[in-house]
Amino acid sequence: MLYFYISAICGIGGGIFSSQFFKEYSLGTLGNIVTGFLGGIATHTVIVLTVGGSAFSLAIVGGFIGGVIVRVAFSIIRQRMTSDS
Length: 85
Prior knowledge:
- This protein has helices at 2-19, 28-51, 56-84.
- It is mainly alpha-helical and 85 residues long.
């Protein structure tokens, strides 16, 4: 359960970190935190299912990268939805 929390926190960090580079696609503070959290949780689940175990390095790196990926994906989706209307 500790690795789950680490992945979630690092996912939040990844969501906030990526917003510094993609300011024009920002989802706002709460949106960046939520998408980063979801990315960290999703990545933790994938790592546990594929690797079969956990480690601090997997939780930290996986959570961070997952937070960045999901946050950027939501930003791209949001941009496409608003540009089409």
